[in-house]
Amino acid sequence: MQTLSKYLLRLSQGALEKPAYEFQDWALAETKNLIPFDSCAWGKGSWVNDTPVIHNIHLHNLAGNFLESWMKYQHEDKLTRDVTLNSNCTFNVDVARDYKDTDIYNIHCKSFFIEHIISTGSIDPDTKIINSLVLYRSDINQPFTEDERALKEILFQHLIEASRINWLTNLPNMFSAYQRSSFNALASCNAQGILHIAMP
After folding, report:
1. Across the beta sheet with 90-94, what order do the strands follow?
2. Contact at 8 Å (CB) between 119 and 101?
3. Which residues pair with 187 in a beta bridge?
4. What's the rounded Cα separation, in Å, for the pair 39 and 136?
5. What Å distances lie between residue 171 and 41, 175, 186, CA to CA?
6. pLDDT values of the chain reduced to their tens digit, one per residue, 200 residues
7. For residue 49, what is the DSSP state?
8. Cβ-proximal residues to 100 (8 Å cutoff; 6+ apart), any chain
9. For the whole model, what pTM was predicted?
10. What pLDDT score does 29 carry?
């Protein structure tokens, strides 16, 4: 319990102190001390015409072509839909067992050394964007335990909120002091005009 308390304190401090470009990798390194994992995908997306659309993604220890590969086989990825339909619930997946004889396992997961997954998602009430955090292990003999799954379910909301605070803390720094004096609130959207985050 004390380890978890110290982690949450560090996460809160890091949200306010870390530059935005460092925060996610730093937070994942801290998380790895509680739940060991080999790689991670931390992203935002939405469903468009019953197809998952990724708006941005942070890949940790994964090759840059990970998303392109996943998109080829995402129609076989029932986990994406399960996570979306069950906000803030964490799913524990043994990929060899649960995706046996599928291309997403035999081609995609094996290419990126993915054997075990714990995945959590939630829908932002303001932007309606889906936040997701997926941790992967490569050792087929080292599944995530039920305790680790339950712990990730607790940590997930703290990580998403800490990331939101970090972004909002860093957002004003992208403008000059003169520009900052002329506005009361900020929002951020991507090139397609999709709102990602907003101050009250």
Report:
1. 51-60, 39-48, 130-137, 116-123, 90-94
2. no
3. 198
4. 5
5. 23, 8, 8
6. 789 999 999 999 999 999 999 999 999 999 999 999 999 999 998 878 878 888 889 999 999 999 999 999 999 999 988 998 899 999 999 999 999 999 999 999 999 999 999 999 998 887 788 999 999 999 999 999 999 999 999 999 999 999 989 988 877 666 555 555 556 666 766 676 676 666 67
7. T
8. none
9. 0.88
10. 97
- Give the residue from 53, 22, 57 showing the smallest Cα distance to 132: 57
Nearest to 36 by CA among 120, 132, 142: 142
CA 134 to chain centre: 6
Q: Is the dihedral of CA 148, 150, 154, 157 positive or negative?
A: positive
Task: Tell me whether residue 74 is exposed, middle or buried, using C-beta atoms within 10 angstroms of its C-beta: 0 to 12, 13 to 18, 19 or more.
Answer: middle
Structure confidence at residue 125 (pLDDT): 80
Dist CA 21 CA 169 (whole Å): 12
CB 126 within 8 A of CB 82: no
Residues near 73 by Cβ (< 8 Å), separated by ≥ 6?
A: 102, 103, 104, 107, 108
Q: Are 28 and 7 in contact (CB under 8 A)?
A: no
